[in-house]
Each structure stands twice: as C-alpha cells, then as structure tokens.
Amino acid sequence: MKSFRYSLVRACAWIIGLMSLFAASTPAASGQEAPPEIPRSSGPLEGPNRQHGIEDSAKEPDAVTGRRRTLVGPQPVTPEQQEEAERLKQLGAKYGTDPTAIVGRVQLSSTYLNLPQGRQGIDTLARVDLALGGNYVLRTDVPVFKMNDPNRPGAASLQGFSDLSVTVARRVYSTPEYTVLVGVTSTFPTGTEPGLSLGKYTLGPTVATARFLPRLDSLLLGLFTHQVSVAGDPARSSVNVSKATLQVNSFWAQRWWSVVQAEWRVDWERNARSNMTVELELGRNVAERLGIFVRPGVGIWGQDLPGAYTWSINGGVRYMFRSF
Fold first, then answer.
1. Which of the four, 2, 23, 98, 140, has the lowest number of CB atoms within 10 Å?
2. What does the alpha-carbon distance between residue 195 and residue 56 come to, in Å, rounded to a whole number?
3. Angle at 136 between CA 108 and CA 242, to 5 degrees
4. Smallest Cα–Cα separation from 170: which of 140, 207, 212?
5. Residue 137 counted as domain residue
6. How many domains does the chain have?
7. pLDDT score at 27
8. Chain centroid to CA 265
C-alpha cells in the first residue's frame, strides 16, 4: 500500500507538471468535427517572423497580437495560420491521427513483433472510440496476442486474448492551433493465458496535446500515460510504468498522411530502466472516412524490457465517424 501511494503521488506530480506546461489560461472552447470536404486555405503561409530562427521568434512579441512567443503552450498566430491550423486539425480528425480529436472510430490492426532471444509475436488489436457530448471520448482496446517462444518450457506457442484497456478522456482546451485532452486509462486482467496478461488491474492518468507547427505545416502531438497496479494477483509483479510519446503528423495531397513517432517508456518497478522505439506511419484515405496504414518500427534501446521489441511492422484499417 505504501508503494502504491508513492506511485500515485509521483503520477500526480507528473500530471501537474505537464498541465503547468501545456494548459492555457483561457477558457476551453468547444469544437465541432469538420465536414468531410475540407477546403485548403488560399495562398502560402506568411506569418510574422518567418525569416527568423526559432530562438529569435521565441523572444520577439507577435506583430498581430503583441504577445511574446513561447516554446510551450498556445502560440500567437496570424489569421492565415489559424485557418491552416484548423484545416490540419480537421484532417487529423478525419484520418484518425489526432489523439485530441473527439470523433468515433472502428479500427483493426495487426503488428508483427521481432523480440529478443528468438521470440516472435503477433499483436492484433480491435479499437472502438465513442464521441460523447462533444468534448468526451470513450476508447476500448481489445487485444489478441500470439507468441512463439522457443525458450519456453512445454508449448512454445501461446495464443489468446490479452488485457482489455479502457480510456475515458475530456478535451479541456481547444483552439485551432492548440488542444489539450486529459483522461484516465485502466487495464483489466482479461488474458486467457498467464503469459498473455499482467495479472493486475491498473489505473493512471492520460494527457494528449496537439499543436500547430507553422514552419512545418504539420501538427506536433504529445502523449503521456502513467499506469500503476491497484489490484489483482498478488503473486504477479506490480505495474508502475510511465510512457511519453512525441509525434509529428503531416498531410500530403489531401489523401495521404505520415506520422513520425518516438516513444520513451520507463519501468519504475525495474529500477527506472527505460526503452525507446521509433516508428513511422504512412497512411492513405481510400473512401471518405475509410483509411489504411502501415507502420514499421525499430527499438533503439532497452529491447529486453516487457513491452519493447527489436523491430516491428504494423498494418491496419480505420473508419472514422462522428458517433454511433
């Protein structure tokens, strides 16, 4: 119990720190999902200080708003940049690449995982998102995992359902150029085999942000989760894991998108050991709100930790909609 309280206090400290960096001082603005057809803004972006570097832009007041630019939080933008930011946010919602968008989805994907010591895995995931009340989203992930481990005594192959994950989140701040989503994620020990489940109930905070990058004409996405075990099999190892993800989401020719992602995971139960992976998602909208994607990835370090891999390849299909 003492360990759980310590973990919960540390999780709260992380979340308060993130909110102090990312939360805006203005009230939340309720946004609506974009119509299917999204017009492109006319003309190139001609925001202030485009000829200066990032450090100069951060020090100088904005010519339109008079506010000083900062490296975190909402940034002053021109009307043209705001229009472009709105277009990109609408595309991110339509294609399912913006984690702060309040939209529904049905997504099916499968990932081949090359693991250390000759192990291999196939992780198939069914995801359903429900948009609730304009600013709330409910996400459910149902995974099925198959693993082949030649070093495992007895049967080398293991297959079945893994642990169910549920996230409830609310969009607390929304403008075309900056959005913050805050929620809670929980997992349940629904695995059909001990090797496919953590054996624990976990609970923890989730934060997602989306920021418009005028220089790259893209979205900068940040995600943070912290999971702590709160109940379950006492014989199984406790869970105390933090995960931070940074993504750059770009759109090409109205129907194509790319996501470059780096993910850092820290396992506090294993002396704060960490691992990092880098992934690249390439996707295409094939029919209105239906899209397909492929996502290769590679482990940078810590491949021997649970949840890490040497390399992977993921592919899937997603259909986005407003609500059921």
1. 2
2. 53
3. 70
4. 207
5. yes
6. 1
7. 38
8. 13
**Contact (CB, 8 A) for 288 and 76:** no
State the pLDDT at residue 8: 46
Question: How many CB atoms lie under 10 A from the CB of residue 44?
Answer: 9
Structural domain that includes position 284: 79-321
Contact indicator for 119, 151 with CB cutoff of 8 Å: yes
For residue 181, what are its two tokens? 């989503």
On whether residue 47 sits in a domain, the answer given is no
Residue 92 has phi, psi (to 5 degrees) of -60, -35
Identify the residue whose tokens are 């909110």. Answer: 19
- Is 260 within a domain? yes
Over residues 128-162, the pLDDT tens digits come to 999 998 899 999 999 999 989 887 776 678 899 99
66 domain residue, yes or no: no
Geometric angle at alpha carbon 42, from 40 and 95, rounded to 5°:
15
Buried b / exposed e over 147-182, threshold 16 CB at 10 Å, is bbbeeeeeeeebeeebbbbebebbbbbbbbbbbbbb
Dist. CA 111–CA 266, nearest whole Å: 22
| Separation of alpha carbons 164 and 144, rounded Å | 10
Residues in the chain: 324
What pLDDT is stored for residue 74 in this prediction?
A: 72
Residues of the chain by 3-state class (helix, strand, coil), percent to 5 = 15, 50, 35
Show the tokens assigned to 74.
């909402």
Contact indicator for 306, 79 with CB cutoff of 8 Å? no
Residues 6 or more apart in contact with residue 197 via CB below 8 angstroms: 162, 163, 189, 190, 191
Q: What is the pTM of this model?
A: 0.77
The CATH number for 306's domain is 2.40.160.40
Question: C-alpha 66: how far from its chain's center?
Answer: 33
